[in-house]
Design a protein that fits this description.
5 helices, globular, Metallo-beta-lactamase, Chain A
Length: about 180
């Protein structure tokens, strides 16, 4: 599986484009549709769009993506940690409320990649002081993610990637 990171919008949101055999998944299509679209081969097929949460900086180009790619949108999935398969892509969903009540992460277990939205950042976590945020729920989500392997690479909604093991050792919120 190949991956491209498309930073877009004034908040520099990370949109992730996954590809395998000319099939694509788009994760959190930010706000700059033309920039996102430039990374997708028109001869390929977008199999779906994955949404970690519905803040404006993560879904600004969603409508344009759906219109052009005519693909389903996967968000607010109801089964946690079940195996989902979309074309050549296999992943689990992890519920991690705190930043928003409906925040989810997508864990591509074969590749050991976790797309966390605004749940975990390098050395930090998503804000809980926005509407719907809840620090108690965030702490429960952190306790849950601590049970996962240290070698998972976390790809956040903003900023640089990190390793879960690094966050377990160095992130203040993992140690309070």
């Amino acid at each position: 599986m190949e991956m491209k990171i498309v930073q877009n919008g004034e908040l520099r949101e990370n949109c992730y484009i996954l590809s395998e055999n000319n099939k694509y998944l788009v994760i959190d299509p930010g706000s700059e549709f033309n920039k996102i679209d430039s990374y997708i081969d028109n001869s390929g097929e977008v199999m779906g769009i994955l949404i970690t949460h519905r803040h404006f900086d993560h879904i600004g180009a969603l409508e344009e993506c759906v219109k052009k790619y005519k693909c389903p949108v996967y968000e607010k999935l109801t089964t946690e940690e079940d195996n989902y398969k979309i074309g050549p892509f296999s992943f689990n969903v992890i519920f991690n409320p705190g930043h928003t009540p409906d925040s989810i992460s997508f864990y591509f277990y074969q590749e050991k990649k976790l797309f966390s939205g605004d749940f975990i950042f390098e050395g930090n976590i998503g804000r809980c002081d926005l509407e719907g945020g809840n620090m108690k729920e965030m702490m429960k989500s952190i306790e849950k993610i601590k049970k996962y392997p240290d070698d998972i690479t976390i790809y956040p909604g903003h900023g640089e990637f990190t390793k879960l093991g690094h966050e377990k050792l160095n992130n203040y919120y993992f140690n309070i």
